[in-house]
Specification:
This protein is α/β, with parallel strands linked by helices. It has helices spanning 2-23, 29-32, 38-49, 72-84, 99-108, 119-123, 131-138, 154-174, 186-200, 218-229; strands spanning 61-66, 90-96, 113-116, 144-150, 176-182, 233-238, 248-252. The longest helix has 22 residues, at 2-23. Residues 1-253 form the Bin3-type SAM domain.
Length: 253
């Protein structure tokens, strides 16, 4: 019985490690990133381009945070948007692929709605229950005012290839007026591929086939150009990169 219990624990540990690398489901994320400069960078960006953004002039401002983890950054983003837009009503929906992280977020921040969802399967139309669509319907809107993708798009890209990432971009661009992106570099992609192989003995099967790739921001430029083809214009870019050397870029339709 003891052996069985230890085997189960080891299996759960291995599964969590795989989920961390494969999907970004880091349960200790805020322990190794305690000083998160992104809210301050976001505030600076929004202050500089607020008047250029296609935000609803009255009523509630609706936000979607894709890959919300335990909700700490979501909560900070909510506070920043409220401050920038002079305490107008603001509502945020946070989604994450990891049910346990979503439960933690709900406990920590009871005033924010968090749901478990896989953005890739929603974008591909492969779900019966779509919590993002449900939120839009409940609030009688067809788009969010702002969608945030902080260090999250690498995971659908590695798991579902260029076409899978394009589906996600198509979906989020169709569901928002303003898009806030923080992209991971190609170097980070390569680190993740190495980690999955080293820690789990597995590979991202579509990695070698990726055409959107390359250092010197080649990867990022492919994504930016695709977003711009969807009718979005770049309104702000925080060139003072954060502690992880990633820019925050704001697009508006």
């Amino acid at each position: 019985a003891v052996f069985t219990f230890l085997t189960m624990c080891e299996h759960q540990s291995n599964r969590r490690k795989r989920d961390e690398v494969q999907h970004g489901s880091y349960h200790q994320y805020y322990q190794f990133r305690p000083q998160d400069s992104r809210p301050e960078h976001l505030k600076k960006c929004l202050l500089g381009c607020r008047s250029q953004l296609n935000i609803s002039p009255t009523g509630t401002i609706h936000l979607l945070d894709v890959g919300c983890n335990r909700g700490l950054l979501s909560n900070s983003v909510l506070a920043v948007v409220r401050e920038i837009f002079c305490d107008r009503p603001v509502s945020l929906l946070g989604v994450d692929i990891d049910e346990e992280l979503v439960r933690d977020a709900r406990k920590e921040f009871e005033g924010i709605e968090f749901v478990q969802a896989d953005i890739s399967t929603i974008a591909a139309g492969r779900v019966e229950n779509d919590p993002i669509g449900d939120y839009l319907s409940r609030n009688q809107i067809d788009r969010f005012d702002m969608i945030f993708c902080f260090s999250v798009l690498m995971y659908p890209h590695l798991n579902h290839g260029d076409s899978g990432l394009r589906l996600v971009l198509d979906y989020i661009c169709s569901k928002t007026k303003v898009l806030v992106l923080e992209l991971q570099s190609w170097e980070k992609y390569r680190d993740n591929v190495r980690r999955l192989k080293r820690d789990c003995g597995e590979q991202f099967p579509l990695y070698e086939k990726l055409e959107w790739r390359g250092n010197q921001r080649k990867l990022e430029q492919n994504i930016y150009k695709y977003v711009e083809k969807q009718g979005f214009e770049r309104k702000s870019e925080e060139l003072n990169k954060n502690e992880y050397k990633r820019n925050i870029v704001i697009y508006s339709s």
